[in-house]
Amino acid sequence: MIIWLASYPRSGNTFFRILLNHLYGIKTYSIYNDPLFKRLPGSADVIGHQELEMDLGQMENSAELFFVKTHDLISDDHPTLYLIRDGRDAVVSFAHYILTFERNNQGKTIRQRIKTLFGWDEFEETLRCLIISSERYYGGWSNHVTHYKSRDKTHFIKFEDLLIDPLNHMQQVIRKLDLQNTSPMPNNIPSFKELHDKWPQFFRKGKMGSWRRDISEELQTLFWKYHGDVMEEMGYQK
């Protein structure tokens, strides 16, 4: 049986996997197999990431329980744990991720260099694209949240709650899943500082409200225009 670990990118999915691994010894999978972890030595062990050894159909029909990460807009009826984060923090973190692990790998084009010389801010434009996009990047933050909110068997977990009190909120998740004989190991949780010290490009800050420093007033207004209704619906304030 599959339980989806779903989220818009950079919304706490990996941290949740770390907590499952360190508190309960539960290993997790990803539909992408997360090849990036091979470039970050030791990260797979800390996260509890395991590569897929069977296809999803076999997992679905198995009596064993599989926790599988996805950012896709899944349309089946499997139970889902949805990691949600303040959309402003999510898009900021996602923009940094794109510029670090995607565009930088391809090298800057001559056109990008010329634009930079004339004041073009690549980070700002990446953020703008993430804010207004409804097709690229998993459909955009609001569409992603709304899609999973409309599904049955979806349990929302706030990344901010996990940062404040990981043990209590993880115990609530375990009870929700009715996992028997699963006791936590509370002294075994790595701090975000430890994660950042080991893999600074992937684990940036793990803080709430960093968007205030990274999003211009113009883009804050633009973000609320596109995502304000869903933000308020999910309990995030302007």
Describe the SSE topology:
Layout: E1 2-7, H1 13-24, E2 29-30, H2 43-47, H3 56-61, E3 66-70, E4 80-84, H4 87-106, H5 110-117, H6 122-132, H7 141-149, E5 154-158, H8 159-164, H9 166-177, H10 192-198, H11 211-214, H12 217-233
Parallel strand pairs: 1-3, 1-4, 2-3, 4-5
Task: Considering the chains and any ligands shown, give keywords for the structure.
single chain, 238 residues, alpha/beta, Rossmann fold, five-stranded parallel beta sheet, 12 helices, 10% strand, globular
Brief description of this entry?
The chain is an alpha/beta fold.
Report the β-strand fraction as a percent range: 5-15%
Q: State mean pLDDT (0 to 100 scale).
A: 87
| Shape designation | globular
- Strand tally, please? 5
Helix content: 40-55%
How many individual helices?
Answer: 12
